[in-house]
Design a protein that fits this description.
Elements (H helix, E strand, L loop, with lengths): L1 H17 L10 E6 L10 E6 L27 E5 L3 E3 L2 E3 L2 E8 L4 E7 L15 E26 L2 E18 L1
């Protein structure tokens, strides 16, 4: 019986390895948690987003034009899960899950929290589903950022959701 099982297992592995699997996504998904009390503590928010690479291109203001709605990343629309009511900029988001879009510009970005979920890109963006819009200044990053990044940074009660790509950095203040 053991030999028969071993042969069936080997045949199964051989068939699996012979199958053509899809290639890796050039803009893999990433997750960033907002844990102001450190690792091992309950998160207050979680962002899930596609992480495109610059790859020598001019992205902001070119591939992703200024003044136009953008999914804030690649592939599926960026989503944020808020575990408790949080204030982003001057707008309070109730606990829940939201899609996140942006309208980037040279000096200021509009960050949009929207109730329509599970969409791809900004093709299904519906302004009537906007829950909050926050305008924040954009600045120059200290170094070029190759991979689009969303993270959380801060200390004590001074926190922000940080969006960085190319030579641009945007900080959305958070209060909890």
């Amino acid at each position: 019986k053991f030999i028969t099982l071993a042969i069936l297992f080997m045949v199964g592995i051989t068939e699996l390895s012979a199958q053509k699997l899809p290639g890796l996504d050039p803009s893999p998904a990433d997750i960033s948690y907002f844990r102001p009390n450190g690792r091992g503590t309950a998160p207050l928010a979680k962002v899930t987003y596609g992480r495109p690479l610059k790859k020598g291109r001019t992205m902001l203001g070119d591939t992703e034009p200024f003044g136009k709605i953008w999914r804030l990343g690649a592939n599926e629309t960026t989503e944020i899960k808020v575990y408790q009511d949080l204030t982003f900029g001057d707008k309070t988001l109730k606990a829940g899950t939201y899609s996140v879009y942006a309208i980037p510009d040279k000096a200021e970005w509009t960050i949009i929290f929207n109730s329509k979920l599970d969409t791809w890109g900004a093709y299904e963006y519906d302004e009537s589903k906007d829950v909050a819009r926050v305008k924040v200044p954009s600045g120059k990053s200290e170094a070029e950022v190759e991979a689009f990044t969303i993270t959380f940074d801060g200390k004590d009660t001074n926190w922000a959701m940080v969006i960085a790509w190319e030579n641009t950095i945007v900080k959305v203040p958070i209060k909890y």
